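So, read this over?
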Amino acid sequence: MYKKSRMLMDTFVTITVVSGSADEADEAIEKAFSAIERFGALINFFSDKSEVAEINRKAGMSEVRVSPATIDIVERAVYVAAKSGGAFDPTIGPVTKLWDFTKKKKPSGVRIRNNLRLVNYQNIIINRDKQTVFLKEKDMLLDLGGIAKGYAADLAVINLQQNGIKSGLVAVAGDIRGFGSRPDGGEWKIGVKNPRQRNGSDEIIARISLSNKAVSTSGDYERYFFINGRRFHHLLDPKTGYPAECCRSVSMIADEGVFADGFSTAVFILGPKKGLELVQALGMDAIIIDNNGKIHATPGLEGRFEIEENH
């Protein structure tokens, strides 16, 4: 088993592969890192040079011709938005840019309301034949941050397999995709963090066994601040512009990282009841920790999911 980590897409990416040769493993991992880096450059919301930035600049004016990977992820983002009734919305950019989680600044209700009118995934026009993306309204902003890391994990896995790797694990922050099995023949085991850590530890609340699946976790503990005892976090409800309050974390299990990523955000916004209904309608699985700390899991996880002692 060979393992390497790198900072890519503003986060920590770790790739683990099973290989009979250190050289083969190293070469495959480096190529997978390069694939993630190229993709990250295309969809970077904060870079003026990205294709997403060009789409945003031309919003309400003209369509933008983009790379196959960009059109592909935008299509998938629109699919997740439609399936979740807009609980996930990739046009939430005008609202997300108002919040500053580094400086712990909350925007005014007036500014949020003004920008919410620009949030509508149905105003993304994709033309597959011309390979273009167009945002219908001026000042709309496409932000793929809620789905991009899962897509990047998928890209890396495809790349590793093309380079002769039969088993491995790709972790792009909280977005993890496993394929094949561990060297001992067992499944990969993925830990689910306790969203309310004690003493600053990385405490694991549950473990999931998986093979040829992806897991993505969305949690209110990743980027947040407190005002008067109330937690404000980065998982914003596209209908209100404020953080969703029904969950502490959602771990979504799907065949592809892009859908695990997008739907983990959607389910977090929807809350446990509607979220579980959506997960089961999609034929996927999820572990939801609600705002009281209660754990909800889909029946499909029976035997593949263990809650750690003391929880």
Observations:
- Residues 51-135 form a domain with the T-fold fold (CATH 1.10.3980.10).
- DSSP finds eight helices and 16 strands in the chain.
- The first strand starts at residue 2 and ends at 8.
